[in-house]
Amino acid sequence: MRQVIVIGAGQAGQSIVTKLRSEGYEGRILLIGDEPVPPYQRPPLSKAYLLGEMELERLFLRPASYYEDANIELVTGTSVTSIDREAKTVSIGPRVESYDALVLATGARPRLLPEAIGGALGGVYAMRTLADADAIAPEFKGGARVLIVGGGYIGLEAAAVAAKKGLNVTLVEMADRILQRVAAKETSDYFRDLHKEHGVDLREGVGLKELRGDDRVREAELTDGTVLDVDFVIVGVGITPDTALAEAAGLEIENGIRTDEYGRTSDPSIYAAGDCASFPHEGQQMRLESVGNAIDQGELVACNILGANVPYVPKPWFWSDQYDVKLQIAGLSMGHDEIAVREGEGTRSHWYYRAGQLIAIDSMNDTRAYMVAKRLIEAGKSVDPARAANPDTDLKELLRG
Known about the structure:
Helix content is 25%, strand content 30%. The protein has helices spanning 11-22, 48-51, 56-59, 64-69, 130-136, 153-164, 185-197, 244-248, 291-305, 367-378, 385-389, 395-399, and strands spanning 3-7, 28-32, 72-75, 82-84, 89-92, 95-98, 101-104, 108-110, 124-126, 145-149, 168-173, 201-204, 208-213, 217-222, 227-229, 232-235, 239-241, 257-258, 270-272, 277-281, 284-286, 317-322, 325-331, 338-344, 347-354, 357-364. Helix 1 (11-22) runs parallel beside helix 9 (291-305).
């Protein structure tokens, strides 16, 4: 194989090219990203970076010198305009490059507010890229009034940063509770209380009706008729997989770019990985939006390009930092029918069960519980919910059965 092209210079793209080299691939590697910077970590953007606690260079997944040293051609600030599957080429503006294997690691795009309700006004921001974080940062002045639309992890993390910086924070969530799509009621309750303790005006079952202003947002009307004066708005209402290039190339789309268990798309010379890609799991095409998935799936695709022919088995893990609380999640909680709550001094964990089998955990400042549950879940083992909930149970004993 003479040349591999990877489109998308995020966590998945970085994982692919690094793994190719570490596995001994000596051919040409071209990594193409549409942002003007090398691959970087996204999670700190709405946390440590926005707080000013992490410098730009620490965001980068590898130092700039790595790409030259590893003989990886990194092209930044450039978009691929088309894929010719028959000729096995990609167009980068007027430049045309051929490939033996092509990987789409195009990630996802944030959902934006419609222009009709004021989404295009100045002072209305999404939080996805480094450019987004840099644009928002000057707004974080003590006393400023911010409206955050969306009670998922991005919205809650932004609310925590804003509250810590002394802003007046209102967060609205259209669903009945925050984190409704991704966590149990017990976890929602925990984080609702945490944010209210820090002064966040958190409103559930209430959405945004309209933003108003001349060229810049000045007020927001909510669906319950409340009108708020605002200085700026952060929109965190989810992301959608970036499938435009794949669709234009005629690849199969199903909950993202559809891949088989080996990461191949409907074209055997083209693979996909990361937020943009769906893979078969328990009879459906699943897509995971996480750093862990981007790394694991990216590395698997790299190995399969080199002939490993290994199926992808997801081992989901996630995290979120809010105030002084580190939330760590392992497993997938969908379809749970029981929750075991374990409380300690300054710690808490929620153990999810389905038909008596441990399937996931949410741990708040309880790294030991997280690590134990993660090992059990990955091994397909379980533990009695009453034992998990008992704070006197030695967690190490749970691993022994």
